[in-house]
Structure formats: C-alpha cells, structure tokens
Amino acid sequence: MLQFRFSTVPKELFKVTLKRPLPCPRQKTWLPTLRCFSGTASVHTRAACAPLKLFHAAANRPALRAAPSAAPFRSYCVKTEGAVELDEQLKKDGVSSEAVGDKRRNPGILPSLEDLLFYTVAEGQEKIPAHKFLTALKATGLRTGDPRLKECMETLKETLKKTSDGVTLDRQQFKKCVQSNIVLLTQAFRKKFVIPDFQSFTSHIDELYENAKKLTGGQVADYIPQLAKFSPDLWAVSLCTVDGQRHTVGDTKVPFCLQSCVKPLKYAVAVHNHSTEYVHSFIGKEPSGLRFNKLFLNEDDKPHNPMVNAGAIVCTSLIKQGASNAEKFDYVVNFLKRMAGNEYVGFSNATFQSERESGDRNFAIGYYLKEKKCFPEGTDMTSVLDFYFQLCSIEVTSESASVMAATLANGGICPITGERVLSPEAVRNTLSLMHSCGMYDFSGQFAFHVGLPAKSGVAGGILLVVPNVMGIMCWSPPLDKLGNSVRGIQFCTDLVELFNFHNYDNLRHFAKKHDPRREGGDQRQHSYGPMDYESLQQELALKAPLWKKVSPTESHQDSSTTVVYRMDNVGKRN
C-alpha cells in the first residue's frame, strides 16, 4: 500500500478533518500496485520515480463507497498514542495560528495543492532537499529550464540563498517556490500529461536509439560540399510532447542545417499569412512520383506540391512579398524561433555559400518556373533563389527541432511557451502534405509502414510528428539512395512497431501494441491542457483525504505507532 508517513499530524490538516467528518466504509479497500517503469532503468531513474508514487496512487484508486444505511457510520481523526502534542509541534515548527491555511483556496475542504505537493516529495521529512525535488521533476519529463517554470526556478534559487544550509527547504519555503506554477506541477506529479509513465517510455526510446546506432550503411551527402564534412557517426534523437515533456539521446547539441526539413515549415508560414486557397493557386497538392529536383510540372503548369524543390521555390516567393531578403529572412527565423520555444535557431553562412555555388539544378528549376509564369507577378527569381538557399541553411539542433515538431503536433501552439504560432488550418494542411509527400520517393512506403507525417532532409534530419502526442527529430548524416537518413528511417519504423502511433493502429479489433498514453495499460490518459487552481481544487474536493492509524508492522518501522496521511482518492477523473 502506498502511504505517506510523518511523525505528527499538522494542526491545520487535523482541524480540516474535524470540520468535515469522513465516511468510514466497513468494507475493505484496496490500492493498485504502481509500476513506475518497465525495462532497464538506472538507479537514478528508480530513485526519481519514488516520490511520484503518492500522487500516482491518488489518481488511480477507485472511489470508496460507504455501506448503504440511513445513518452512515462516521469516524473522526484523533491523535494517536505516542504522538507529540500538536500545540507543542506547531511552536517547534514556528507555525502561527494565523498562518494556518494561508494561500488555501478552499479552506475546510482539502489542504492546498502546494501542501499536497510538499508531502508527496518530502516522504515524511520536515524538509526537502532541493535536488530531490528537481530530480523528481525531471522524472515527469519537465526540465528546470522550461520557460513555464521560470518564476518557480528563480524563486527557488533566491530562497536557497537565504536558507541556513543552502540545500533544504521547509514547507513554507517550498510552498513559496512552487505557488506560481502549482497547476503545472500538480498535473506533472499526478501523471496527467500525455505520456504518464515517462521514464518507462524513454527507456524504450533509448533502446530504439541503440538499435539504430548499430547501422553502418548509407553515404553522407556530398553534392553540397559543406554537408560532406559531417561525421557519419553522428546520431541524435530528441522528442518533445504536447505537454512539454522532453527527452534527448545522442549528439543532440550539434547544430545542423534543416535543408528540406524547412519546406513544411515555410509552407505553414505561407498558409498562416495568406490562405490555403491563395497558396495552392500557385502550388499543387499531389505527390509527383518523381525525384525531388526534377524539372517537371503538373498538367496545370504548377509544381506538384510544396515538398519538392520546384514547389518549395514557389512557396518561398509567397513569403513577405515586396520586402527585402533581409526582412524576409528575419521574419522566417523569428517564426521558427517561436515554434522552437526560443531555443536554438541559427544560420550557416558557409552552407549558404556552398549551396549557391553548387545550385545549378535549382537555378534551372527557377528559370523553368519563370518561363511557365509560376511566380506571383513582379517576382525577382534570382532574389527568390537566394532566399531559398538561405532558408535551407538555417541551423537547428535536434532538441530545438523537436519543439518545432511538437508545435505542429500541438495544433500550432508551442508546448513550452503556450504561444499560438500557427493557425489550425496551416497545421492541418502541413501535416497532410508531410504525410503524402514528405519523404521524397519513399513517401508512399513511409506512409504505409510508419503512418505518420514526416519530412526528411539531405543533412540527415527527419522531422516526425505524432499528432496530439509529440514531435521528434532524428538526425544522422548517412543517407540511403532515396536521400533519407538510414538510422532515422530505422528508428521511425521501430518506433511504430513498438507503439501504436501509426494512424490506423487504433482501429477496433486490431492487434494491440504498447500505448504510452495509457497509464499502466489500464486507463487512457489525455493531455488536459491548462487548468486553473480552482478547477483542480474542485476536482480534489470531490475526494476526501483518508487518515488511518497503522501498526508499526504496516508502516515498516520499529518505533511507536505513527499517523499516516494518504491521498488515496485525490484527482481521479470519473
């Protein structure tokens, strides 16, 4: 049984329970067994998972039912034998009567969310080491550098400077640190994110990464001289969920150019700024069935789609028409930075120069498009090609690109900032074209086997989107004969073989795969999005905290009997 123990009962919680007597069912109750993770995991992972058990038990335990009777039996919390007098304990803790229930939004119903979070992390101690809280936080998938937690982390840093040891926090200090972000933290520790068992999920991701790392086939692209300088041993995978949970493995800090991975992003910008009808009055929507750099148009003398070079060049001409290339470039880079949650987006001038010097095929495509009057009236074709080469030379890391992909997965809202960057229309159309045309001549096979929107680039990147779940960036320079990353294709294929991420994996009567969106394989979890404090308090108020007097044997202690506070029924959605 998952229980929370401390030597004495806080006075304020004791008073709350006396004010609101609790039903005491005569029947036996049960508590489900918690599985924090499966597969191989480090000792640090197991240690980090332990503080989460209290909230997890609260979210999964069925509601207790009182025995039917006209006058249901009620019991009251009383002080256990051997417990220290409450008044003496309050004086010892330095808690004044005026401080009881401060910041509690619903006094008399439940302790505040801040209190519940403290008891979860503290595990019976009167103080919490800061590193213990941060380790438990990382186990949920959140990072200390998450922009949403900026105020919390700054307050924590300042508070630790004022503590006697610079390491631990008491309850009041902890509450002060977390109160600005308590709703997000409560959702994280109660496993309300889209991937509840994040440690288990990432252990599988690490295994898939290692499997793909063993591959040695493929060739690094050399038709752009600057790309040929990358080591074939580089391999990185980063993911970001729609709730901002992050995981990275491999060479995730190495910058690389987006190349063709920028095509769906600038298409999304064009649709966002104009409209679907306007953009597709210049570009088609069909797969070409030809090489991405072919001089070929459809029967209406339009490029087949925005994911081939001809379509991407025309799409480039639609962005900020009439502005200078410098203004256009700054505009798109700022757009991509917002999609990446202000993480790294750079520019490789060496790659830009290399592209322009070796871009004969793209110049040929440009002149062909000009001949067929594919550009908006008044377009300077050579200026458009320069801008096209610049956008291909934009640098990212696998970490920042995974946030861009997650913004697409999240309907155009960046998960780590909450900012709406793209319209829903732009996102839907972008994902549709990525699904049908994003993987060069392998698009049909990828749609068949993987069944997810993706876009590859000759630098070795694969931008993968799992709608409503996460975005992933795989990067490894060696390419197969169709221009896709060898390791990236293997990783995406293995991912969908293990998890039910394929668009049609969830059909009725279909063979079951692992669903990381289910907690313990029992109940489907959803990304609930932002919730306010009052909503969470109302949800928690539906369930009453239980107090139980346990024996030394049950509490695994040899000392005298202690009082156990359990959040058994807190936060379960009906």
UniProtKB/TrEMBL annotation:
Domain of life: Eukaryota
Annotated coiled-coil segments of the chain: none
Gene3D superfamilies from the UniProt entry: 1.10.238.210, DD-peptidase/beta-lactamase superfamily
Glutaminase EF-hand domain mapped to chain residues: 114-196
EC number(s) per entry: 3.5.1.2
One GO-annotated biological process of the protein: glutamate biosynthetic process
Pfam families given in the database record: EF-hand_14 (PF17959), Glutaminase (PF04960)
Sorted UniProt keywords: ANK repeat, Hydrolase, Repeat
Record-linked InterPro entries: Beta-lactam/transpept-like (IPR012338), Glutaminase (IPR015868), Glutaminase_EF-hand (IPR041541)
Gene Ontology terms, MF aspect: glutaminase activity
Enzyme class, broadest EC rank: hydrolase
Keyword flag Hydrolase: yes
Catalytic activity of the protein: L-glutamine + H2O = L-glutamate + NH4(+)
Family: Belongs to the glutaminase family.
Entry-linked PANTHER family: GLUTAMINASE, GLUTAMINASE KIDNEY ISOFORM, MITOCHONDRIAL
Name of the molecule in the record: glutaminase
Species of origin: Anabas testudineus (Climbing perch)
